[in-house]
Amino acid sequence: MKLPSDYTASTTAYYDAHAAEFCESTASVDVSALYGPFLRELPAGGRILDAGCGSGRDSLAFLRMGYRVVSIDASQEMVAAATRHTGQEAMLLTFDALAFDSEFDGIWACGSLVHIARRDLNSVMARLSRALKPNGVLYMSFKHGDSERMEGERFFNDLNETMFETILGLHPELTPLQVWITEDLRNYRRGPQRCLNAIVRRISSEE
């Protein structure tokens, strides 16, 4: 599909306009089964970037487990919601403005990179990779599929295993630890959806 030059604007506007509704539908969803594979790769009390934090649900869970968390989102209203939910200040920051350098033991990008077009995903992945400490890990999830599409006001980039492997191949400093499929944990009116989950590690330069 042909995307508008700033396809992110309507997506961000959607979350600004529907923040309360989105938080209500996601804040209580139990995603603890996804935490395990990610957190076992992190040191106790490690530093996590919650990249696209939404309601702050996962940030709060990680904080309660003793991790240090930086929460970011592109939506001003979601930043406000996450700040209220976690009790610590979230940051208004877009993926294309990430400038962290070797700062995080783990990055949690749960359902957020779905809004990045394929033409921009390579550069965003490079920024996320740079934000990781050597041997740090990145968790990310996408809706399983092969299309770029608008769903109302929101843009979605769906990926399958082959497409993800191709994208990852552009980043030799990242090595996959686990790639797996789950059912979407939220109940959708249009029926069940599948999600592609992946955990990758930033290889230490000494290796």
The structural domain count equals 1
Major β-sheet strand ordering: 3-2-1-4-5-9-8
Biggest sheet character: 7 strands, mixed
Strand content of the residues, in percent? Answer: 25-35%
SSE order: HHHEHEHEEHEEEHEE
From the 3D structure, determine the CATH topology: Rossmann fold
Task: Summarize the amount of helix as a percent range.
Answer: 25-40%
**End-to-end CA span:** 40 Å
| Shape designation | globular
Average pLDDT reading: 91
Gross CATH architecture: 3-Layer(aba) Sandwich
- Look at the helices and sheets and give the structural class: alpha/beta
Number of helices: 7
The name of the CATH superfamily reads Vaccinia Virus protein VP39
CATH class: Alpha Beta
Describe this protein with a few key phrases.
two-stranded antiparallel sheet; single chain; alpha/beta; globular; 207 residues; Rossmann fold
Question: What does the model show?
Answer:
With 207 residues, the chain is an alpha/beta fold. It has one domain (8-25, 32-202): 3-Layer(aba) Sandwich (Rossmann fold), CATH 3.40.50. Helices cover 32% and strands 28% of the residues. The chain contains seven helices and nine strands, in the order αααβαβαββαβββαββ. The chain has helices spanning 8-17, 19-26, 32-39, 57-64, 76-86, 118-131, 161-168; strands at 47-51, 68-73, 91-92, 104-109, 132-143, 148-151, 154-157, 174-183, 194-202. The chain has a seven-stranded mixed beta sheet with strand order 3-2-1-4-5-9-8. A two-stranded antiparallel ribbon has the order 6-7.
